[in-house]
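Researcher: Go.
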Amino acid sequence: MGTNADNVKEIKGFLPRSIRYAQDINEDFSEALASFYTAVWEDREDGLSMKEKHLLVFSIACSNNNSESAVKILERLKKFGATRTEVTDCMMIAAWTGGIQNFTDFSRQVLKQMDKLGF
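Model: Structure:
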């Protein structure tokens, strides 16, 4: 495992499957993908906090009706101290941008996971 992949593990807390799969294909490809993850998720002065980044990707996942991803992101949001109100604001924004049908589709699974995680 290269240094970029190690950085991703440190930043994200785990090695994303895409990087593991890329390692099986080509080391250079894996390193490039890991560099992309690092660029997106590392802390930068005056940048978004990890909580804010996860709130954004949560809202986007919901807006795209990607319930599976949204449910996984809730665990990260809990870790970074997001409140129930912040999460529900993101759900409402997702309904605004993705449409009410997407909201109907993703909200059942997301609300169930929120209760499970204690939001």
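Model: Helices lie at 3-12, 17-25, 27-41, 50-63, 67-79, 84-98, 100-117.
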